Amino acid sequence: MSKPWCSALAGGGVRIAVQIAPNAKRTEVLGVFDDALKIKLQAQPIEGKANEALVKYIAGALKVSRSSVVITHGHTNKRKLLEVDARSLAPEAVERLLLPQNL
Q: Domain-by-domain residue ranges, the chain?
């Protein structure tokens, strides 16, 4: 079943809607709020540092290369759309890998 914050792409891979909260003490997923995955980032929102930290975190959590994760919308906003080019990833797998188990 498709999640509002995570959907399958036609050619394979997934699209993920995220909302970031920069300048956190540590990077972690808070859960799903307003149809977006809320993530605290231990990075400042200057010179693309938060975007780079987000890409690195998502790639690591989903076990894909950093080049497979692209921010397609919202480079300068807290709300962003990411596309992950990985044919083996389905929305259910993304949910299992990213969401804390206690949510």
A: 6-98
Angle (CA) 64 95 72, round 5°: 55
- pLDDT value at position 14? 96
Q: How many CA atoms lie within 13 A of 66 on its CB side?
A: 7
Q: How many residues does the chain have?
A: 103
pLDDT in tens, 78-88: 999 999 998 88
Residues 6-98, CATH architecture = 2-Layer Sandwich (3.30)
Q: Give residue-wise pLDDT tens across range 25-36.
A: 999 999 999 899
Question: What is the distance between the alpha carbons of residues 11 and 22, in angstroms, rounded to a whole number?
Answer: 31
Handedness of CA 66, 51, 20, 83 (dihedral sign): negative
Q: What is the rounded CA–CA span in Å between residue 7 and residue 10?
A: 10
- Please state, in angstroms and rounded to a whole number, the distance separating the CA atoms of residues 40 and 57: 11
Q: What is the pTM of this model?
A: 0.91
